[in-house]
Amino acid sequence: MLQEIIHTWPYLMGLLAFYGLPLPHSLVELTSDGAPPSHPQGLKFELHTLPVDAKAVADGDTVTVYVSTTDPGESSCLPRDVQAAAIERSKARAQKNYQKADELHKQIIDSGYRVIPVNHEEVLARKYRIRLRGIDAPESAMPYGKEAKEELTKVVQGKSLRVFVFDQDRYGRCVGDIYCNGIFAQEVMLKKGLAWHYATYDKRPEFEKWEKEARAKRIGLWAARNPEMPWEWRKQKRENQCS
């Protein structure tokens, strides 16, 4: 029986890969309930996003999201010039003056907003770049960088997210936790071995536990004997550019 399994194993793996089904080593059990804490310490604000496009995922720990300006938190601070440009753009499109409409949309985008089609309607929305709090995924040029981006895309694509924002980094990104459809994004990335626990900035014990579980199973980037830390990789790259 064991010999039969060994003989057919490559064939089975090929079938799973061909049909885009998860491989056995990539299956993980999510132990958290995927629900955010009711009053997380240090929370600055919360976002409820429009459905996320796959192209909005930059890598395994960064995603661009949009929040409708009909949201109470956004409507109260919507700049008048952006609102006026959106109204004028709608009129220009109705008159088939697409050049003017495009110029107005560029003005809207330059202000940090965008008009997005949702359910056959156009929605004016504010742009936010989110950096997942407490994890650091491999950069795109690093081993498992592509896999990390693909996994985060699977988690968020087409879904409306609930984002808890705690800080802003030096690049202007909101640092936060992402929840969607009963899934905690950071848990998925850590348990699948596609991100490091960024322990320097985040001391949550469950993050340390999830990373250790992935290390023990040699999942994802932990399949390598000595995977390079993303922050060390970035540091080396900066040093090479300056030399």
UniProtKB/TrEMBL annotation:
Key words, A-Z: Endonuclease, Hydrolase, Nuclease
Q: What GO MF terms are annotated?
A: aminoacyl-tRNA ligase activity; ATP binding; endonuclease activity; hydrolase activity; nucleic acid binding
TNase-like domain residues are 48-224
Does this entry carry the keyword Iron-sulfur? no
Record's signal peptide: none
Record bears the keyword Aminoacyl-tRNA synthetase: no
**A Pfam family per the record:** SNase
Q: Which InterPro entries match?
A: SNase_OB-fold_sf, Staphylococal_nuclease_OB-fold, Thermonucl_AS, tRNAsynth_Ia_anticodon-bd
Q: Which PANTHER family match?
A: EBNA2 BINDING PROTEIN P100, SERINE_THREONINE-PROTEIN KINASE 31
User: What name does UniProt use for this protein?
Assistant: Staphylococcal-like nuclease CAN3
Organism this protein belongs to = Capsicum annuum (Capsicum pepper)
Upper classification of the organism: Eukaryota, Viridiplantae, Streptophyta, Embryophyta, Tracheophyta
